[in-house]
């Protein structure tokens, strides 16, 4: 049975258009509460991509898409630059190592650990939030030398190893462990998430687990979603961050439960 060439082209255009829209939604969600991988990885797998290629493709789209959100937060002074240098190196190293070992270690071990830790994160999300401004935030020596490097390494490793939900986990970790204000946590987490994405990106690119050509329109969609989402966050603050973090973490919890527990 032969398929008409024009019909095949139509299917291809429709498929790519859907993935561009999905990338836009993922970028929008990621810029506010993290969780691009929760949308992108299942979408890529549903198109028939092998799991490792889907993970690599998500790193490609998310890494480039995050830049517009970083620009928005940077322009509005919401990134806490004085702590950035302490987490970037460990996020890079952790994500690279996570990407390298994903085929060597049973990912269900990490998935189950994250699954059982997520309810704690959801509990934290209901607790009263600090509302002090960035100017009042002063990280302690423990935050700089222990909390930030260790947190970025562990979550970076998870990002390279599996990925979905990394941004949400970073926001919660920065807010509760490093005691950052919520909006600044969301903004600063983008720097660390970008670093972990780059580390994982390198590992997957070396392994040939990316399809660069078809990613171009998806990257454009992700950039647009990130820009709009970060703009809305700056206007609406915690009112938009809180529910989307809850939704993002809940989706991650359900997806990991289906994959690793059920």
Automatic annotation (TrEMBL):
Q: Looking at the Swiss-Prot or TrEMBL record, what is one Pfam family this protein matches?
A: TauE
The reply on keyword Transmembrane helix is: yes
Q: Report what the protein is called.
A: Probable membrane transporter protein
Q: How is this protein situated with respect to the membrane?
A: Multi-pass membrane protein
Q: Which family does it belong to?
A: Belongs to the 4-toluene sulfonate uptake permease (TSUP) (TC 2.A.102) family.
Q: Name the species this protein comes from.
A: Candidatus Haliotispira prima
Q: What is the lineage of its organism?
A: Bacteria, Pseudomonadati, Spirochaetota, Spirochaetia, Spirochaetales
Identify the keywords attached in UniProt to this record, alphabetized.
Cell membrane, Membrane, Transmembrane, Transmembrane helix, Transport
Record InterPro entries: TM_pro_TauE-like (IPR002781), TSUP (IPR052017)
Main location as per UniProt: membrane
Transmembrane region positions?
7-26, 79-97, 109-126, 147-178, 198-228, 240-261
Where located? Cell membrane
């Amino acid at each position: 049975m032969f398929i008409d060439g024009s019909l095949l082209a139509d299917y291809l255009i429709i498929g790519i258009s859907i993935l561009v829209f999905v990338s836009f939604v993922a970028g929008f969600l990621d810029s506010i509460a993290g969780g691009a991988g929760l949308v992108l990885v299942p979408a890529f797998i549903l198109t028939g991509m092998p799991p490792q290629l889907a993970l690599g493709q998500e790193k490609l789209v998310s890494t480039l898409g995050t830049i517009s959100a970083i620009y928005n937060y940077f322009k509005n002074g919401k990134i806490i630059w004085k702590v950035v240098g302490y987490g970037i190196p460990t996020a890079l190293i952790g994500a690279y190592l996570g990407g390298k070992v994903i085929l060597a270690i049973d990912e269900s071990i990490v998935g189950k650990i994250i699954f059982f830790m997520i309810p704690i994160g959801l509990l934290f999300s209901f607790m009263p939030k600090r509302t002090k401004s960035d100017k009042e935030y002063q990280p302690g020596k423990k935050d700089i030398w222990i909390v930030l490097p260790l947190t970025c390494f562990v979550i970076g490793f998870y990002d390279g190893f599996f990925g979905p939900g990394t941004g949400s986990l970073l926001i919660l970790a920065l807010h509760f462990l490093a005691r950052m204000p919520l909006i600044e946590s969301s903004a600063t987490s983008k720097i660390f998430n970008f670093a972990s994405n780059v580390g994982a990106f390198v590992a997957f690119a070396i392994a040939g687990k990316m399809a660069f050509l078809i990613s171009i329109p998806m990257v454009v969609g992700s950039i647009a979603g990130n820009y709009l989402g970060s703009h809305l966050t700056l206007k609406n603050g915690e009112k938009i961050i809180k529910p989307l973090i809850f939704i993002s973490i809940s989706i991650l919890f359900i997806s990991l439960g289906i994959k690793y527990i059920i």
